Amino acid sequence: MTRFSKYRNCLVLVIFIFLLFTMRKKMRNEEMFFMKEIEKKIKTCSETVHIFSAVAQAKLNLSLIEYVVLNVLDGSIYSNYDCCIYGENEQAVHRVNAVLKETYDHGSKYADLIARQYVCSVQQINIKMQNIQLVGKGDFCNCSHNFHPVLYAAVKENKFAICAKIAYNYLNPLHLIEWFEYQKMMTVDTVLMFIQDINQDAYAVLKYYEREGIATLIPYPSKMPGKIDRGFLIHRWHNHQSTHDEQVAVYSCKEILQGFAFVAVVDVDEFIVHGKFLGYTEILTTELLPVYPDAAGFTLNASFFITDWGVSGVEPLLTSKYIRRSSPLYHRYKNIYLPNRTTSMDTHKMWPNKGYRRIELRSHNIILYHYRKCQRSDNKTDICFRFSRNTDTKMLKRLMYQLFWETLKLQFFKKKERSREEGELEIQLQFE
Question: EC (predicted)?
Fold first, then answer.
């Protein structure tokens, strides 16, 4: 190799490192701006109520929308508010009474801010809704500049969506790719996820799937409102308040995904697995609903692949690395529900509309595979250490190679030249 070649290679390496550092910093700045904006938006004219999302009724014809639902954390006693609804440029204003729709009762006596839903009727409105505020009965509209955007729920008949709740802290980017590719194989149309302070590599993965069209990402505030310092990690979890913080995300999922045929509330370490690996919609339409025509939803037993038991399979995928699981248990179960037949839900429960029922699938061949650590791995009395241990190579044999090659196609932090109109570089995941 000539001296010139050495210098050229060094120069290329230095430029690549510089670009990588610059783009990582740019992406981090973008993420910080993303979070700061949502922290502004959750504030209202009242210091006691904080809006997390405002969602219009799902209608193909927007002129037929009858209401907007506000998903909030509420510290008020009397819940006495009005909705101020704004059109373009905040000029046209429509004021209407905010009707309390639902209060999440779990531990509400001990939480400072309670997860609630308010409904604002918009039947008499003749403007295109852009933003909304909650104000006290004695407050004026425009009492502050903190408006919350109105989201329009999509109508997607016969489509399947996943509410993945809140992504936070560190997520393994390889495992995240594996999870998304599995959902695509299972014919999932949309994954809705709220983002709170995650690692940059995982954020890049999520942005890739957002660009691909399967992921819908909504920012969640880094600092939750109220006086209690808390978070979603175990050591920062507040027994009562954090449950309500999580429920606001579930409420938001419920409203944003109301126009889908089927919705599952699962996390990114959970896989819904059918014995023959049928797609989710096919399972429901060909196997479950013909047998249970009055079902509002289906509760899935969970098998736990405890990572503290040690590696029992082969690298590198999560589903190939751990192949020892518990027997299916009615413990920390999850649900697939039909939005048009369901009144409400939380992470583990659902409440059917009148005339429908929740079906517990105790013996069916569709199970929730949950890959996790023991919550208290240093405590050998934790319940997870008492689970039975069964070898299950289903995912390893049937899906490893397909998922593995799909995962390999995605490369981290590749530079792609944006369009000439944008004139800049971005880090993204892309197919080779």
Answer: 2.4.1.-
